[in-house]
Amino acid sequence: MKNKAVILGNNYYIGLSAIRGLGKEGIHTVAVDYSEEERYGAASKYCSEKIIVPHYKDETEGFIQGLIDFAKKQDEKPVLIPCHDTYLEVIDAYLDRIKEYYLIPQSEQGLATEVMNKDTLHALAIEHGVRVPEIVRINEPNLEERVEQDIKFPCLVKPFDSPTFVHTFRRKLFKVHNMQELHEALEKAKQKELEVFIQRIIPGFDDHMYTFDAYLNQNSKVTHWTTCQKLRQYPINFGASVYTIQKHTPELFEIGSKFLEGINYKGFAEIEFKKDEETGEFYLIEINARITNFNQMLYKVGLNFPYITYREMIGSPLEPKAVTENTNRAFWYGYEDLLAVRDYIKTKQLKVSDVLKTFRRPKAYAIWSWSDPKPAFVFGGIIIKKVFRKVFRRK
User: Fold this and answer.
1) What's the DSSP call for residue 371?
2) Using an 8 Å Cβ cutoff, are 63 and 53 in contact?
C-alpha cells in the first residue's frame, strides 16, 4: 500500500500501539514528534521512518507547515493519526489546510474539539438525550447555595479545556471536600486563566467506569465497536486507565452509537461512562476523539482501530465487526498500575487479594512486547534517568 501512515505523538504508548497495529499489517509508518527526547514509541521495529517537526503549540504554524512539506514529497496522500489530545486540537483547528494533503476521517472542522471540550460536550449530550452529571458554572448566582443543595460535597472542579489543564496542573481535575477547598481550587484555576466548572460525583468505585469504543465511517455510521470496563486507574478515582478489561455491555452501544451518529461524528471515538451504583444509570463523562490508552488490548480482541482507520481512508474499508462476547482480555500498564495499587491499598479502597485475582486474565501490555522489546528498554532507560535526577536534586 503506497499511502504512508503518519503517527503524531510517540513519546507515549498510544503512539507506540498505533505504530505496531499498522506496522504488523505491512503499512509504512512515520513517527512524527517535536523532539528526540523520550520518543520510545519510535524505537519500535514497526516504525519505518522518523521525522522531527516544530512544536505543535510553541510553533504551531511551523508544525503545520512541517506536516504539509512532508506530505508534498509523497506519491500518495498519507493517512494522519494523532495520538494525543493536544495534537488533535491543533489538527482540528487547521483541518481545512491539513485535509488538502492528508487523509483524515473527520470532515467537520471543530467537531473533535467540541466533543473534547467539557462545556460543549455537556450541551451536546443534553441536546441528544444522554445523561451527564449535574454541573454548576462558577459565574452563576447563589453559587455556594447551588453547590450545597444540588451538587453536594465532595465534588469536582473540572476544566472545559482538559489538555491545557492537565499540562498546567499535571492532573485532570480537583476533588474538593468543603467550601474552603472549593474556593481554593477556583482561585488556582483563575490564576492560570483556565475556565472550570463544578460537577457532581456519580457514586461508584472505579470499576463503575465503562467505555464504548467505536469507529464511524464517512456516513457517520458505527462499523466497528466493543465495550470495556475499567478496574483501576491512575491517579486513582479520577485518572487514566491502567487496568481495563473488555466486557460486553449492550446498553452502551444503544446510548453511544445513537449519540455519535446523531452528531455526525466520523472516525474513532471512545465515550467514557460511569454507572451510578445507586440507580444503575449510565452517565457520559467524556469523549476521547483519538486512539485510546488501551488500544493494544482492543487490537488483541480483534479491533485494530488504527488499521480500520487507514483502510477506510484509502478507500478499501474492512468488513464491519463488533466484539460482543466477553473475551476476558485485560489491558495492563504495569508501571502506573503499581503506583495505583499502592494508593488503593493505602486508602483501603482495595485489598491485596482483590488485586491479585485480577492478574489471572490474559493481558495486553501498554509497552512490553516479546516480539518488539526495544521500546520497553528505551522506556526503562527514561524512567531510570528520571529517578537519578530526582535523587540528585534532593542531595
Assistant:
1) T
2) yes
Which pLDDT band holds residue 350 (cuts at 50, 70, 90)?
Answer: very high
Alpha-carbon separation of residue 385 from 13, 37, 333 (angstroms): 18, 12, 20
As separate numbers, helices (DSSP H) first and strands (DSSP E) second, the chain gives 15, 16
Fold of 206-361: D-amino Acid Aminotransferase; Chain A, domain 1 (3.30.470)
Q: In terms of DSSP bridges, do strands 49-52 and 29-33 run parallel, antiparallel, or are they unpaired?
A: parallel
pLDDT digits (tens, 9 = 90+) for 18-38: 999 999 999 999 999 999 999
Size (the chain), residues: 395
Given the candidates 3.30.1020.10, 3.65.10.10, 3.40.50.720, 3.40.50.10610, the CATH classification of the domain at 5-104 is: 3.40.50.720
Going edge to edge, which strands form the sheet with 155-159? 135-137, 196-200, 155-159, 174-176
Judged by DSSP in three states, 119 sits in: helix
Q: What is the pTM of this model?
A: 0.93
Unique residue bearing C-alpha cell 493536544: 86
Classify residue 293 as exposed, middle or buried by CB count within 10 Å of its CB (0-12, 13-18, 19+): buried
pLDDT tens digits along 230-261: 999 999 998 899 999 999 999 999 999 999 99
pLDDT at residue 387, as a whole number: 83
